[in-house]
Specification:
Distance between the termini: 45 Å
Structural class: alpha+beta
Number of helices: 11
Largest sheet: 13 strands, mixed
Helix content: 25-40%
Shape: globular
Radius of gyration: 21 Å
Oligomer: single chain
Length: 345
């Protein structure tokens, strides 16, 4: 493939595509599970516009991205949200940078004021190196399922045995009650973490992810529920919702009650899932990232104990791109500097 930044006669163009056309050759690109049409449809719902873009050079699609165009009122203008950076045909820094440059031109031509590019399930560890994008860094923990498979910690294996000794039952689950059970357990998890670490957070931690979009996500067939139940319990003690596609899985949500914490039921679920995914020849199970609060170190240790390998990923945001909103950019730059100072120990 020709270098995406070479040649004055072959600039990278951004072309909007219909979802069915955009998805047709998606498997030729290293894509995030958060770029799939089913994810975008679920998050957009009926309130926002779905956007599917191809990056074209010399009549060849070299990368793809999808997202949600939001109407934020006059004060903030329209914004374009991507849950991951473009899916690349080749993992090259110059190609990623060419895509980011092309996106800036595309947004300005459409009167889009700001862009947010998250990094969920990102399939590379490159950061945009283009002026106009402000980079942020985070990590995810990915369990490799090919080769010899993951290495579990001794403590994790001990907790799995504890759950098995309690005769906890794990399995896939279906039905309308599963979302209600999960949301109840997400609330229980929030209470446990808040009392332990004194920090609060939004269990639906992604933009536009909420009760309604989760329901749409399940109906789209983008993911599957799993549950763990102790003998005699009237409802599940632990419920997970995982995105699954093309031999990859992402642990989107998990809720646990006090018994699940006490007997390691979430660990049992992940242990059983890892074995099941391996039998199905999945290549990876992404356990997600950490919350960044006081309990973040514990979460990171827990994910590493399950065999998760740390993967650094990079997202980016822009300032306002069009007049008159770009007059507010000095204020945005000041807020960024203050945020950096506050985050320093």
């Amino acid at each position: 493939m020709k270098n995406a930044t070479e040649g004055k006669n072959s600039p990278l163009r951004v072309v909007a595509a219909r979802p069915e056309v955009w998805e047709r050759n998606l498997n030729d690109f290293a894509f995030s599970l958060f770029l799939t049409p089913e994810w975008v449809r679920a998050m957009a719902g009926t309130q926002a516009k779905r956007v599917f873009l191809d990056f074209v050079q010399d009549d060849t699609v070299v990368a793809k991205v999808s997202g949600v165009l939001q109407q934020n009122g006059w004060l903030k203008g329209r914004s374009l949200l991507f849950y991951a950076s473009p899916a690349l045909g080749e993992t090259r820094q110059d190609l990623l940078d060419a895509c980011c440059t092309a996106l800036l031109a595309y947004a300005r031509s459409k009167g889009i004021q700001r862009m947010l590019m998250a990094s969920y399930d990102q399939q590379h560890s490159m950061a945009p190196g283009v002026k106009g994008w402000f980079v942020n860094k985070r990590c995810e923990f990915v369990v490799p399922l090919n080769g010899e498979g993951p290495v579990f910690s001794t403590n994790f294996k001990r907790n799995v045995k504890k759950a098995l000794k309690k005769e906890a039952l794990f399995g896939p689950a279906e039905g309308e009650d599963l979302q209600a059970d999960l949301e109840d357990l997400l609330g229980a998890t929030l209470e446990t973490r808040s009392s332990k670490y004194g920090e609060t957070y939004n269990p639906f931690y992604l933009p536009l992810l909420n009760s309604n979009s989760l329901e749409r996500l399940y109906k789209e067939g983008a993911g599957r529920y799993y549950k763990v139940t102790l003998p005699g319990a009237p409802t599940p003690n632990c419920v997970l919702f995982n995105l699954e596609r093309e031999g990859r899985a992402f642990n989107l949500l998990v809720g646990s009650d006090s018994a699940a914490y006490r007997f390691g039921l979430a660990g049992l679920a992940d242990y059983q899932l890892i074995e099941s995914y391996r039998l199905q020849r999945y290549s990876a199970y992404n356990l997600g990232g950490a919350t960044g609060d006081a309990g973040s170190a514990g979460l990171e240790r827990s994910k590493e104990a399950r065999g998760g390998q740390r993967r650094w990923v990079y997202g980016a945001t822009t300032n306002f791109l069009c007049f008159p909103h770009r007059l507010l950019n000095p204020l945005l730059l000041l807020l960024r500097r203050l945020r950096v100072k506050l985050m320093k120990p």
